[in-house]
Amino acid sequence: MKKVSLTGIKPTGDLHIGNYFGAIKPALELAKEYDARYFIADYHALNTMKDPKELNTTIRQVAAGWLASGLDPDKVIFYRQSSIPEVFELTTMLMSFTAKGLMNRAHAYKAAVQENNEKNDDTDAGINMGLFTYPILMAADIIIFDSDIVPVGKDQVQHIEMAQDIAQVINANYGTQILKIPQAGVQEDSAVIPGLDGRKMSKSYNNVIPLFAPEKALRKTIMRITTNSQTVEEPKNPDECQIFQLYKLFTDENEQTSLASVYRAGGMGWGNAKEELFRVVNRCLSPIRERYDAIMADIPALDKILEQGAEKARPIAAATVKRFRKIAGID
Ligand code: ADP
Ligand code: TRP
């Protein structure tokens, strides 16, 4: 039997090419080796997103983004967290075994408390119980599907360790391996995709190249990449240029070698380099964008895909809850 990998995606905001190369593409690769499950963590998003229209839209945008990027719903299980009520039943069960002190140590909660203290505000100002218990819901997401491996960025490793802790406490209590202990799959060397200003591409820096921008807007965005004041004639170093770094993501070695030699020879201005980047980005993203637009034009069909995914997921989730209830004496 193949091992299970599980990826949770928080539906917050438009996807950008940093998300695509840093998260979506590597996560989709896992489907080759694992029994892969992907879900939209919409109840996790509710902690911070209180505008119903916005949340409703981003859930669909992010789901469409993954499908357009190549997620095959016939080969993997793809669903919305909110469609699996068993996840919330398991969350309640896990609560009974989770020390409050463990939650006090969670990085996200501690950071929020520290911010309040620095502002001389009430310690828990603006902190809801969803944020405080975030790691328990995440543990339930993971444990309910007997997940072996959870690919995450470094910032999420603590959450996986907490899921391990909680599962271990439960296994120890009942003296049996009732729950599988998940492992974090951290990509140590995962590349950081630079944004328009050379810093890490991120929504919070407002320096992103959106994954699904229409062609005109895409070109305009690429033209905004910050460059230095080197003249057209000056030879340029491709290794010190974010235009070239981005170019590498979309091209093969031949194209890279040839643009690098034009850079070094001098005679190519930043404007032309950006045009060349736009050409290859657009070449790669056009088919993805077309698929995305087609999916977003038929939301009922998209919802159907997610519902069919939930139908595949629920029996697995129900079996874990049943197993737990039986051993806990609640059957
Ligand atoms: P943002 O920084 O834009 O808010 P998120 O934190 O929502 O992005 O990131 C979602 C996923 O995309 C994470 O797995 C993260 O590691 C990945 N990611 C985001 N930005 C980049 C980037 N510039 N380079 C590589 N991976 C990225
Ligand atoms: N907390 C994750 C993030 O912010 C999203 C997430 C929720 C998740 N549940 C999960 C990731 C379960 C992996 C497994 O990115």
Fold blueprint:
Blueprint: E1 4-9, H1 17-29, E2 35-40, H2 42-46, H3 52-68, E3 77-80, H4 85-95, H5 100-104, H6 107-118, H7 129-132, H8 134-143, E4 149-152, H9 157-174, E5 183-186, H10 215-223, H11 242-249, H12 253-265, H13 270-296, H14 299-328
Parallel strand pairs: 1-2, 2-3, 4-5
Helix pairs in contact: 3-13, 4-8, 4-14, 8-9, 10-13, 11-13
Bound molecules: adenosine-5'-diphosphate and tryptophan.
- The number of helical runs is 14
Mean of the pLDDT scores?
95
Overall morphology = globular
Q: Distance N terminus to C terminus?
A: 29 Å
Structural class of the secondary elements?
Answer: mainly alpha
**Radius of gyration over C-alpha positions, nearest whole angstrom:** 23 Å
Number of strands: 5
Percent of sequence in beta strands:
5-15%
Largest sheet: 3 strands, parallel
The order of strands across the largest sheet is: 1-2-3
State the helical fraction: 40-55%
Uncertain stretches: none
Q: Can you write the helix and strand succession as a string?
A: EHEHHEHHHHHEHEHHHHH
Ligands (ions, cofactors included) = adenosine-5'-diphosphate, tryptophan
Short description, anyone?
With 331 residues, the chain is mostly helical. The protein has helices at 17-29, 42-46, 52-68, 85-95, 100-104, 107-118, 129-132, 134-143, 157-174, 215-223, 242-249, 253-265, 270-296, 299-328; strands at residues 4-9, 35-40, 77-80, 149-152, 183-186. The strands form two sheets. A three-stranded parallel sheet has the order 1-2-3. Strands 4-5 form a two-stranded parallel ribbon.
